[in-house]
Amino acid sequence: MTRRYDSHEVRRRTISAGIKLFIEKGYHKTTVSDICRLADVSNGSFFNVFRTKNGL
């Protein structure tokens, strides 16, 4: 079964994960892969919604 891509849900989970990791590790030590892993989204989905980590 294919998972449906929901950009609003990806955005919500990614922002939440990013905030958590930026607080815990700092912006420069947090990678996009860290954010994606915590948010349970693919790197491709991340970059479809946000062009860069800075865009987050």
Question: How are the elements arranged and paired?
Answer:
Elements: H1 7-25, H2 32-39, H3 43-49
Helix pairs in contact: 1-2, 1-3
Range of helix content: 55-70%
Instruction: Give the number of helices.
Output: 3
Rg value: 11 Å
Mean pLDDT, rounded to whole units? Answer: 92
Strand count:
0
Q: Which spans of ≥5 residues are poorly predicted at pLDDT below 50? A: none
Sheet/helix structural class: mainly alpha
CATH topology: Arc Repressor Mutant, subunit A
How is the biggest beta sheet arranged? none
Instruction: State the end-to-end distance.
Output: 29 Å
What amount of the residues lies in strands? under 5%
> CATH H-level name... which superfamily?
Homeodomain-like
For the record, the CATH class is: Mainly Alpha
CATH architecture: Orthogonal Bundle
How would the global form be characterised?
Answer: globular
